[in-house]
Fold each of these.
Amino acid sequence: MTEAEYFATGDPLERHVYDAVLAILESFSPLTIEFVSVGIFFKREHTFAELRPKRDRRRRLRIELSMLFSRSVKHPRFARTWQGTGQRSACFLSIYDEREIDQEVRDWLTEAYLTSPTTSH
């Protein structure tokens, strides 16, 4: 799916959050962005961050930003975390406003990108 097709039917919040995340990541290389029916995947060689539209208990739209790390990360802003086998973990933020994409989130996205596993040649 193309970017235009993805955003053609979505809520404006999705676009605003995507633009805020992209402003952080656009200078990273290599970077691949995949638009799929369930959300947006940001990849180096593998997915390191995702944006997915969700509804909270009150049915309000939120955008779930998930990030994969090579360490266990705990923070009160995370709505939930997942610890994989080994050192990989995932953290999930509930975003209701693009202004929540702040310096702290910038640091986490940068770390997720830089620690994303790559294939050695």
Amino acid sequence: MMRREFITLLGGAAAMPMVTAGAQERMRRVGILTTSFGVDDPEMQTRNSAFILALQEFGWAEGKNVRVEFRSAGGKASDLRKHAAELVSLADVVLANGGQTVSALQDVSRTVPIVFVSVPDPVGAGFVDSLARPGGNATGFTNFEYGIVAKWLELLKEVAPAVRQVAVLRDPSNAAGSGQWGAIQLAASSFGVELSSINSRADAGEMERTFASFARRPNCGLILTANIGGAARRDFFVNLAARHKLPAVYPSRYWAAGGSYPSALSRP
């Protein structure tokens, strides 16, 4: 989320009016729940800092009249349910990153306001009644347009025109990733490429072997789709691609911008 989007989020999400001068001011609590990032993840810290700055522009000062409670499940379903229950009991409003977090929160409460981001199909998932009139206790943003994923394949061909075989790193249990995988499959023939699917939830050893085996083929490339826990493991995935000299397209800019790898896009 960019800073402007955070400002919009706070402006239109849950009504938390400031008190009048001289009245007793109650400390408000805003929860942030994610399953994609760890507490110490630089990307999450950047997002949280932008969020705090946006709160200040609306008159909410951390530690003065608002307290932000951050929880990360790190991809663990049991921790996600535990953190969801905790935040619902603590917070006046919860910012939920991803569909799994919204589901966990709504399982606990249908009254505490939820503002979501990075949810592929909030209507289909049953989080809201419609995009125009969400109803219930959830509202937010969706940044998924599956048709545009075909552009990822086009971009990969521009970076490495010789690519004929493309591995798609995906999580079969992730709705967004499955939609992106479908869009890539539809576009593959028009770009003259053959697709292979790699399960992003495999352990490190299996992933190392899979990448090594795939990279031995001629004219290979890589696309990474949305996947549970992928953000937390992004350095591992990007380093694998760089080590095997696989030209790659990642789902978000911050994947290619960080990490210890020498280059996020490497020609074979």
